[in-house]
Amino acid sequence: MKSSTSKLSQHLAALTEAVQAGDGRCDPAVVAKAKAVADRAAQRVALGGDYTVVALAGSTGSGKSSLFNALTETELAQVAARRPTTSKAMAVGWGAELPNELLDWLDVGKRHLIVPDDKRLANMVLLDLPDHDSTEDAHRVTVGRMVDMVDALVWVVDPQKYADSALHDGYLKPLADHADVMLMVLNQVDRLNPDELKGCVTDLRRLLDSEGLQSMPLMATSATRRDGIYELRSSLIATVERKRTMLKRLSLDVKKSAKSLVADIGPKMPAKMNSSLKEQVASTMADAAGVPVVVDGVREAWRLRGRIATGWPLLSWVLRMRPDPLKDLRLGAETAAEQSSSATNPTRLPWANAVQKARVEQGTRELVDQAAQGLPNGWAEAVRRASRVNDQLLADDLDVAIADPELTAKPRAWWWTVFTVLQWVLVGAVVLGLTWWLAGPALAAAGFGIPLFIWFGVPGGALVAAGGIVGGLLLAALGRGLVSAAANAVARRAEKQLEAAVTEVVTNRVFAPVQAELDRYHQAREAAHAALR
Ligand SMILES: Nc1nc2c(ncn2[C@@H]2O[C@H](COP(=O)(O)OP(=O)(O)OP(=O)(O)O)[C@@H](O)[C@H]2O)c(=O)[nH]1
Ligand SMILES: [Mg+2]
Q: Which of 212, 324, 346, 415 is such that its CA lies 20 to 30 A from the CA of 159?
């Protein structure tokens, strides 16, 4: 019993998902049609789905509870001469389950299930309502809630009060739009003789017609004598059948729409972009964004600063005159911001030359063409659109990625300091040696008693000075070798870091939007197929 609506609900949910995913990509006519079907079906399924809900409403004492018992062949509803009797709505369902969600929503607390003696009654739910003109506002609300949610609303009147203006003006006239789902029952006809009955029915019919309720059927019953109960039951069975037919048709419509979507979406396509093409795009993008230029700058800056720190102080001061290669590149967050706001920089990729830019464009085109290949036109166009929209942002992000402040911070190694200290110790040795050598003889002659240490005819001072110079130059050569090796390692690390940063930018700005379109295509396809299963 439950399965057919839950199946319809599932198909409906899938169709709605396919419609949302396919919107703007699939054939607009197919989408519009499917959307209309989905909306209509959703409305119907919301009305309790498989269940046909019928409510008995009317003034107190008209015999709603008595009719409820007659129709359900039970004594579940309390019937009494005391007015009003029914204060809380009650439900009886024929079958194995009740539409509990709907009953919750309608605030129907008392619920019973009975085994249908007539199969055609399966899944019908009958509600006995409190009287409509009860003084309590809560009852009024209950009737108001019912009208939109039930499949049929049976108004029960008795021969004394059938023309009651509270009923006609308060409910029937305002609900004239719902005439198709309403039914009028004149109960307690056992109290009337045939002429009175005829007059009563004619009068009530005229009244209803004058209120715009021409299409609302009118029946006569007696709950106590069981007149017209069979006819009323048959009319409710017809409502159940109408609903079943309607749901079947709806189910077919949902499938038909899903079929058109499936046909429009086409066969299964690769779910991912070609990864080697992606790598290629990222790498040309890194080139165009200036990664090699920056890497060279980092290497040169490291080398220059290292050589200044480790070189022979008496010569390396010349190197200080050279401009810093990183400053030359005008890197740093400030510079990047200047560049992005600069009107003189229309290319947005300051480092790229025409060839690099063309390579980037061609690579991206290849990647996107490959991703869009085989997709229906609307989807292929969406994939291209996704890869295009973010050009400006892409360039800005690349600028920022390239201007990594960590790379532009002053690069230094701890061991340079050791070299600097040693170099200055050696410079000190040279100064001391020269002083000893040049001023020594004069000081000795003046009686200061300084030993001169002549060794193979060479004075000790000259030896120390020469040792200092040779030591300094050797140390500088060693430093130069080490600095060079370190500069290459640092440059390699910078390159990896920058390439990763560029790849991240390209992933966010190009790959991800394209992938999102591909994902959307698969989502639409899966959902449309699910709506068929
Ligand atoms: N003669 C006759 N009396 C009926 C008929 N239907 C109901 N009654 C009586 O009318 C009185 C009210 O019936 P209920 O079925 O309780 O009426 P109700 O519409 O449910 O009333 P509330 O619950 O107060 O809204 C009871 O005494 C019933 O026995 C009928 O067809 N003929
Ligand atoms: Mg009652």
A: 212
